[in-house]
Amino acid sequence: MEMKYLMAPAYLWDGTEEKVQTGIAFAVENGRVIWKGSLAEGRRQMPDAEVIQKNWLVLPGFIDAHDHGRAVSPTGFGVPDRSLELWLQDLWRLPALNHRIATRFDGLQLISSGVTTVLHSHNPNRWENLVPELVQAAGGYRQTGLRCILCPPYLDQNKGIYAERARFLESLPDDLREKFADGIHDRVFTVEEYLEKIEELTELLEPEIREGWVEIQLHPNGGQWCSDEALLKMKDYADAHHMRIHMHLLETRYQQIYAQKTWGCSFLRHYADIGFLGNNLSCAHMIWLTPEDEELLAKYHVIAVNNPSSNIRLRSGVFPLRELAEKNVPMALGLDGCALDDDQDYLRELRIAYFNNAACGIGAEVAPDEPLRMATGSGAGIADGRLSPGVIKVGEKADFIGISVEELRRPYADADADLLDLLLHRGTRKAVEAVYVQGQKVYDAEKYEERYRVAAAELTEEIRRLREETPIRPLPWKQEIIGEIGKFYRKWEDAK
Fold first, then answer.
1. How many of the other CB atoms lie within 10 Å of CB of 496?
2. Hey, how many other C-beta atoms are within 10 angstroms of the C-beta on 44?
3. C-alpha span between 108 and 4 (Å, rounded)
4. Which of 163, 228, 217, 224 is nearest to 194 (CA)?
5. What is the per-residue pLDDT for 186?
6. How confident is the model at residue 359 (pLDDT cuts 50, 70, 90)?
7. 1 pLDDT above the threshold of 60
8. How would residue 2 be classed by pLDDT, with cut points 50, 70 and 90?
9. Average pLDDT score over the chain
């Protein structure tokens, strides 16, 4: 039995209030919050409890609601940032990292910036190894103390380009046409075989799922890559098994055009018409929305996940945070493995979300608690609160962060300067002193450097080994293909 303790921070934002509170302590026992009130009352009721009294701003643990566990961003492997449709063509350069090694390193970066749960959108090295790779990924996150949502991907119409493949292939020179066509695999396996893999993974990770460290969600990779038939079979399975579904959607303008070309309406309108939308669905990016789309998100309680750094780096567009907030659309926040500084710092990502909200002029402001709620309570909705709860509340799991008030106020801040404002303007992992998951301290700033050094050395050695085994060789035709794809999509734009 874990001894109970009283956490008595100088300041508390528990995820339920608009403002920071002072003079509030909370008691933790067996991984849950069992009491909240004044420190004096806590001492009286629990005289034997250890008291942890810190000059901290304590907040609920952050949820990284969309990431890929890459460890190193594609930039580190010579992949330049450019439009998604072109960027994807360069990802062949990435080495096939051991996923435990990758997620261990990635998880350390995340937890050091206050993340307690990450949604892992898996990029398989080999489709046939999907299940063991995901077990590896879960193991790496677990080593860091991080909870994870595993999303095994599925696609059954890998078009290479989104539509009009035949016309595109005809436009290519003969040598390029053959090379491009060789890389197209429309269906790796059937949706029935995919669901069998979900069941196999669930069985293998049953202890971790039962203990609240892992959740599995269905993951149609993207609207343009999945047939209606596959999506509806997944929804039926998810509904029957009380599961959630996560997917990429409306990341770029070309995806919006694809929907219009295919159905004569938006993705969301089409998905509502066929019965796919529901409150167990979350969608990453969600930039190219129509006003009707925004209403549909609100109606069906679909969670829209903002990935601001990725959206900037890949020239995708800007998430309409203010508009969605006004319509009461549930929103979350994810790093997408593309943090602006390649540093996986969740607090920096909060700042970008706060200021890059697609609104301009007088009245464009977003309240400081809006991005924080995306990061905590609304983010917890990605797993229906089954992992990190997103609040500090009696009866809930004790997942929380200790932020140094001294660091937030450095070099100077007036005593009445709002701490949430300071957090959003100044916060980085440098201010995170401790992270608790299920009541246990899983991150201590004083011990981080050694853990980071060991994980980084293991990662570096793994990459060096892979590069020695399979050296990168120039493929000039890849760049030619990228140029042709660029021309093709520009014609879509011109047609609009």
1. 9
2. 10
3. 27
4. 217
5. 87
6. confident
7. no
8. low
9. 95
Q: State the pLDDT confidence band at 218, using cuts at 50, 70 and 90.
A: very high
Higher pLDDT, 186 or 197: 197
* Mean pLDDT of the 294-306 span: 98
Prior bond of 74 cis (ω within 30°): no
Asked whether the CA dihedral 84, 86, 87, 92 is positive or negative, the reply is: positive
The type of residue at 400 is F
What is the rounded average pLDDT of the residues 280-284?
98
State how far the Cα of 408 lies from the Cα of 57, in Å rounded to an integer.
Answer: 9
Domains defined for the chain, CATH in brackets: 5-60+395-447 (2.30.40.10), 62-383 (3.20.20.140)
What is the model's pLDDT at position 322?
Answer: 93
In whole angstroms, what is the distance from residue 230 CA to residue 192 CA?
A: 9
How far does CA 2 lie from the centroid of its chain? 31
Could you give the angle at the alpha carbon of 451 between the alpha carbons of 446 and 457, nearest 5°? 140
Average pLDDT over residues 316-342: 95
Residue 74: exposed, middle, or buried by beta-carbon count in 10 A (0-12, 13-18, 19+)? buried
DSSP letter string over 277-292?
--TTEEEEE--S--HH
Helix pair 419-426, 346-355: axis angle to 10 deg: 100
CB 273 within 8 A of CB 305: no
Residue 360: CB partners within 8 Å, gap ≥ 6? none
- The letter for the amino acid at 169 is L
Alpha-helical runs (H) found in 225-265: 228-240, 253-263
For 47-94, how does the pLDDT look when each residue is reduced to its tens digit (9 = 90+)?
Answer: 999 999 999 999 999 999 999 999 999 999 999 999 999 999 999 999
Kindly compute the dihedral angle of the four CA atoms of residues 321, 322, 323, 326, in this order, to the nearest 10 degrees. Answer: 120
Residues 6+ apart with CB under 8 A from 286: 249, 250, 297, 304, 305, 306, 319
Asked if 374 and 330 count as a contact pair (C-beta separation under 8 A), the reply is no
- Contact predicate 283/267, CB 8 Å: no
pLDDT one-digit tens code per residue, 109-154: 999 999 999 999 999 999 999 999 999 999 999 999 999 999 999 9
Angle 271-276-281 from CA coordinates, rounded to 5°? 105
Question: 251 and 316 in contact (C-beta within 8 Å)?
Answer: yes
Nearest CA to 319 out of 353, 366, 343, 363 is that of 353
Residue listed under structure tokens 């509904």? 239
Task: Confirm if 216 and 150 have CB atoms less than 8 A apart.
Answer: yes
Q: Maximum CA pair distance of the chain?
A: 82
Q: What is the pLDDT averaged over residues 212-231? A: 97
